[in-house]
Amino acid sequence: EGRWTLPRLGALLLGLMGTLVSGTESDFQHHRYEELVRALFAVQSECPYITRIYSIGRSVEGRHLYVLEFSDNPGIHEALEPEFKYVGNMHGNEVVGRELLIKFSQFLCEEYRAGNERIMRLIHDTRIHILPSMNPDGYEVAARQGPEFNGYLVGRGNSREIDLNRNFPDLNALMYYYEKTNGRNHHLPLPDNWEQQVEPETLAVIKWMQNYNFILSANLHGGAVVANYPFDKSRDPRIRGRTTYAATPDDKIFKKLARTYSYAHSWMHKGWNCGDFFDEGITNGASWYSLSKGMQDFNYLYTNCFEITLELSCDKFPPASSLPREWLGNREALVSYLEQVHHGIKGMVYDENNNPIANAEISVAGISHDVTSGVDGDYFRLLLPGTYTVTASAPGHVPSTSTVTVGPAEAIQLYFYLKTAPKQNLNVKHHHGKKNISSTKVPLNLGPR
Questions:
Q1: How far apart are the C-alpha atoms of 143 and 130, rounded to whole Å?
Q2: 404 touches 345 (CB < 8 A)
Q3: Which residues contact 169 (CB under 8 A, 6 or more apart)?
């Protein structure tokens, strides 16, 4: 082709600059609930063929928890196309994530229309879900106080003043018990009556996780500048004044995910921020401080989703004038992190008649955390480059094992065809374990997370 036409040159420049959507600083403002809704619907009307807006439920005060989806086929899960989510404003007074996700939505729409190849590829190959505010009621409480007077806790919880990041079922206690007894290592059972024990916002998000096979996620907070990865809850009853690192079986990949955001961010990786030092701008959650019933650990223990918690600003509710700098500091990191959903292995699990098998278990030798195939029989397993032995198994079928080498680029496709097991082998082993393990009461910790 060779010739640089004006539109192509324009598209390239847009890609390099990352257009600031109708780029003036006056466009950056704090969005109250009605303004947030207007902004999301404006994006949807500007990019109708690649977006969809849906509500996952309502807050205590009846505000919708709106999600904006980006996809070349909105509303449809395409086999082998991973699902990704960003969640903002879980703590109502931590507002930078909310504003960044509104801006990021506008950015994706504008860049797609401008022909930015990187953004077009992302939207064609990924189903992206953006929830700018998980806690719209708390936000309104904080916003009434405004940036100048906002206290550390005003508007943090929902309208019943419940901290949503201490409100998910505690699966860590069960996981740590299973580690000692060789029990399940994934998709742990929820306690009985769990729906009565959580807030409406938490319930909506858990049902959302049940309805979509999310693979990668980040949850945006404020009050520090660091990429925090699981586990958030310490394995040991805490010794006063001492924190202990709580690694997941996927510790190496979680460190890589956290580093991806930190190094793509303009200043997070430098380590010194808000009077704290975090080497490379990343931290294990429990090693910072132990936290029970958080959303990040719940993702890993209940679903196929790997989630990290991004602390994005020292000031939880900064003035609107600081938002352009925050956008420029985070823009590349938001895109780079999203691209990580395309690493590792993915494929289909079929039976011998080429019917897809849902809920097949995919296990990787040496990593005691399995993932499962989705309703269409497709699975995704985030992995670092290396050679792995991978087994697919499903009740009533003979397990199948393959060796695969993962490179640093796109996910390697690995398909499994499972034969029906001979009749006498149908007694598939089930892990049993007590559902409810009482966890020791931890003093309420009110750090940024």
A1: 21
A2: yes
A3: 190, 191, 194, 197, 198, 293, 298, 302
Phi, psi of 84, deg, nearest 5: -130, 145
Clarify whether 78 is annotated catalytic.
no
**pTM for this model (two decimals):** 0.89
Residue ranges of the chain with pLDDT lower than 50? 1-24, 425-426, 428-444
SS3 at position 71: coil
The maximal CA–CA distance of the chain, rounded, in angstroms, is: 71
Q: What is the mean pLDDT of the chain?
A: 90
E strand map for 19-59: 51-58
Token readout for 109 is 């729409």
Regarding beta strands 345-351 and 378-381, do their DSSP bridges make them parallel or antiparallel, or are they unpaired?
antiparallel
Give, for 67, the enclosing helix (H) or strand (E): strand 64-70
What are the structural domains of the chain?
A: 33-342 (3.40.630.10), 344-420 (2.60.40.1120)
Rounded Cα distance, 389 and 414, in Å: 11
Closest CA to 134 of 50, 229, 217, 64: 64
Interatomic CA distance for residues 209 and 267, integer angstroms: 32
* Chain mean position to CA 151: 27
Closest residue by Cα to residue 231 from 170, 275, 277: 170
Among the listed residues 311, 332, 352, 361, the single catalytic one is 311
